Amino acid sequence: MLDEAMSAMSAVPHSGLRHLTAPARSRIDEAATALSRTGPTRAATLLRVFVDTLEGKAALDRDGLAALSGARLDAQLHLLVSSEVRSSRTDFTNGPQARFR
User: Fold this and answer.
1) pTM of this prediction?
2) In the 3-class helix/strand/coil scheme, how is the chain assigned residue by residue?
3) How many other β-carbons are positioned within 10 Å of the β-carbon of residue 14?
4) CA angle 30, 3, 78 (to 5 degrees)
5) CA 60 – CA 8 distance, rounded (Å)
């Protein structure tokens, strides 16, 4: 699920905050729903905040763009750290040599 959410969020830098397509928004929303069902609720909440901020923008003035950028950064960083922690746990449970295979 984390990989799917990170993949969904990867559309943001390609299109930009101002031009994010409806399908890209849907993918992010679907990723948030999937995460909330499977357990990483904080990641789901941050994705949902990002989507809600996207949809709540009437005009992207300076403050709106700052809020949107902040919501995206919070979600993206959380996903990246969560993925790294998950990866580290896998490496740890497979033994110290697992990283070098």
Assistant:
1) 0.80
2) CHHHHHHHHCHHHHHCHHHCCHHHHHHHHHHHHHHHHHCCHHHHHHHHHHHHHHHCCCCCCHHHHHHHHHHHHHHHHHHHHHHHHHHHHHHHHCCHHHHHC
3) 10
4) 85
5) 22
Question: How large is the greatest C-alpha to C-alpha distance in the chain, in angstroms?
Answer: 52
Write the CB contacts of 87 (distance below 8 Å, at least 6 apart in sequence): none
Residue type, 27: R
Q: How many CB atoms lie within 10 A of CB 52?
A: 13
Quickly count: other Cβ atoms within 10 Å of residue 79's Cβ.
Answer: 23
- Distance, in Å, from the CA atom of 97 to the CA atom of 52, rounded to the nearest integer, reads 43
pLDDT tens figures, 39-76: 889 999 999 999 998 887 655 788 888 889 999 999 99
